[in-house]
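Q: I have two molecules that I believe assemble together. Could you output structure tokens for the complex as a whole instead of separate predictions?
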Amino acid sequence: MSNDYKTIVKDGIWNNNVVMSQMLALCPLLAVTGTATNGLGMGLATIVVMIVASTIISMSKGIITQEVRIPVFVLLIAGIVTLVDMYINAYMHELYKVLGLFIPLIVTNCAILGRVESFASRNEILPSMTDGLMMGIGFTLILVVLGATREITGSGTLFANASLLLGESFSFLEITLIEDYKGFLLMILPPGAFIALGFILAGKRVIDRKMATTKTNEFPVIQPVSGH
Amino acid sequence: MPKGVKDPSYRKRIGYHAGLLAGIALIVSAVLAIGNKQTKAEIELRLEEDMRASLNMVLPPSLYDNDLLAKTSTIITNNGEEKQIYVARKKGKTVGVAFKMAEQGYAGPIQVMIGIDYNGEILGARVISHLETPGLGDKIEEKKDDWILGFDGLSLENTSIDQWAVKKDGGRFDQFSGATITPRAVVNAITKGLSFFKEKVKPELVIKKPEKDKEVSHEQ
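A: Yes, here they are, computed for all two components at once.
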């Protein structure tokens, strides 16, 4: 059983990462990663929605039929996102001012629909929750890495305005890496996101290949390259 | 759905699918309605607080003694747009007004809240919402740069009209490196706000004593 969870964790964060392997959620990914802080905010909001959606859909998998599953999932996800939006606005208003922009974007995130369809609707509640959490963390990781890359190259800072998102105690995260940096507009604008994402994907391939060769050296078995 | 799970025959009927979808839609709408009812009052309260906070930044609270949100006036601009004016009074006398101006920036509309005293001098201006590029155009926000404070105390009287532009256009306000459109839009919004005050708001609310049902001016 614990082995299963290990696979879920590994899949979510690395092997089957939402962005790096499944190539999902590119729209919100490219839209909000101008700074690392924005990426983190979007990631946190997505984690919450992903866990709740996975749990609810895993619970109701017994009654949902194959034929109408997609509209039902979309309905549930949209409902959850709207609820989260309303409650954060009402009771965590300071956070809402920062995250509010991202929350409606989550509905358009096909990664959630994808995970719900391919995992939560076929598995028990606990593994589904774990899967939601891990896929969310994997997504957040990429958001932060991409956001940080673009922020450093584009404006020379890192985690600018993190204190607005996480509270004053996190202001130590805000670093100006390059003083008097003139800014590199291309990286802040959408093309920069594509370029940086390309490097990240290439980087993952390189690491995966290296790991595969070390493995084959240890156990000389020819492993089929899994294509996604 | 896993194939092995028992699949009773009623599940294959179209009625079950339709009923399922309708049932879930009903449950989701019911939950949303409850959520909306629970949060509505709270959200309105929060929005009002936000409004008060942005008004406090452009109209120093020490200047007036009335409740700005209790009663607002509506004045129609030259474009036929209805504008809400927040009027600050001290002992019944109008000491200043605040209103929002919107101008197209680089990536979308920029909303600026402007506070103007009865003489037409700017008490304060703040960008309350914008979609400009983080790191470039967002220096118009007060918490990121003190550029916006440069407008304080200026008016159409003490600053000639051709000075109301960014330096690149021959005016007095700095543009940002890599971003000229954004500060230009803010300068335009504030300039338009000042002339709106001079032409419409001042005659209606400052010179004339405002009466209850005569607060809407009409377009000629």
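A: One point stands out. Chain A has one domain: 20-211.
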